[in-house]
Write a sequence for this structure.
């Protein structure tokens, strides 16, 4: 849909006149666009006028397109997807598997178009996916260690977990709630985020801090890279805008070191070859 038609929406016009706009390029819909604000918290209120993507979704798609240009051919599992990235994944990738957790639905069955899966107790087989995607899911998990292990189990060797999460990198991880004898114990005043499955919202269990990457490694053996992007042209400017890439390396990632070993062996072979047949004075 053209920008002109999008701007016929009175609410969008009101926000644009009140707060201004920025011309740029949206990595989600792949179009030149206008970005407009509906509030001061840009992470959730800085929209693409075409597709209504927000900064963290645009950051994830920018990393996806730059580091995984073949993503349309990959087998991808996304847990708890939301608009508009869900629609773009579905339209572009025939191997995209979206799942949501419905408490009263049998795991592995389909409900309202989504396969029911508990991220900590998945029914998928080992080494099923090339990529797992989660967007602001990890802060709501009561068993994050089990979820990290299950993500690693279902990834193929060389596969990745691409995700976003609010990351308080300057402080220790803060646990706000936990399970105690199958009952949720609140350690802090309960806080909820929007939830497409439950009108009550999604309980914030963990404020992930400086040990997030270490926790992932301790749980699953996966190593994690943090990508922080500030790109006004793409409408990526907000707090908690990091994109994380956890990798399940084949053979523990030994091939990364073997690159230098192979190079060293070639140098030694070249030295030996140079010595053979070299005239020696007696």
């Amino acid at each position: 849909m053209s920008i002109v038609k999008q701007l016929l929406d009175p609410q969008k016009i009101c926000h644009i006149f009140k707060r201004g706009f920025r011309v740029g390029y949206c990595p989600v819909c792949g179009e030149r666009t206008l970005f407009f604000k509906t509030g001061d918290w840009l992470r959730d209120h800085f929209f693409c006028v075409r597709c209504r993507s927000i900064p963290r979704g645009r950051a994830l798609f920018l990393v996806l397109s730059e580091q995984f240009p073949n993503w349309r051919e990959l087998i991808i599992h996304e847990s708890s997807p939301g608009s508009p990235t869900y629609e773009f994944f579905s339209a572009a990738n025939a191997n995209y598997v979206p799942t949501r957790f419905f408490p009263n639905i049998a795991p592995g069955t389909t409900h309202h178009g989504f396969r029911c899966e508990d991220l900590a107790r998945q029914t998928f087989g080992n080494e099923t996916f090339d990529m797992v995607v989660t967007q602001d899911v990890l802060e709501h998990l009561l068993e994050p260690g089990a979820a990290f292990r299950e993500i690693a189990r279902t990834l193929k060797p060389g596969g990745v977990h691409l995700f976003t999460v609010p990351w308080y990198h300057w402080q220790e991880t803060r646990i706000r709630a936990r399970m105690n004898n199958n009952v949720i114990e609140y350690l802090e005043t309960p806080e909820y985020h929007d939830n497409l499955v439950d009108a009550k919202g999604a309980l914030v269990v963990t404020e992930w801090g400086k040990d997030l990457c270490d926790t992932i490694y301790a749980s699953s053996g996966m190593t994690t890279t943090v990508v922080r992007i500030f790109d006004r042209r793409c409408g990526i400017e907000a707090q908690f805008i990091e994109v994380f890439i956890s990798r399940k390396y084949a053979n523990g990632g030994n091939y990364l070191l073997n690159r230098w070993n192979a190079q060293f062996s070639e140098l030694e072979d070249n030295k030996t070859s140079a010595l053979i047949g070299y005239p020696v004075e007696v």
In short: The helical segments are 3-6, 10-19, 42-45, 55-67, 85-92, 144-154, 212-220, 254-275. The chain has a mean pLDDT of 89.
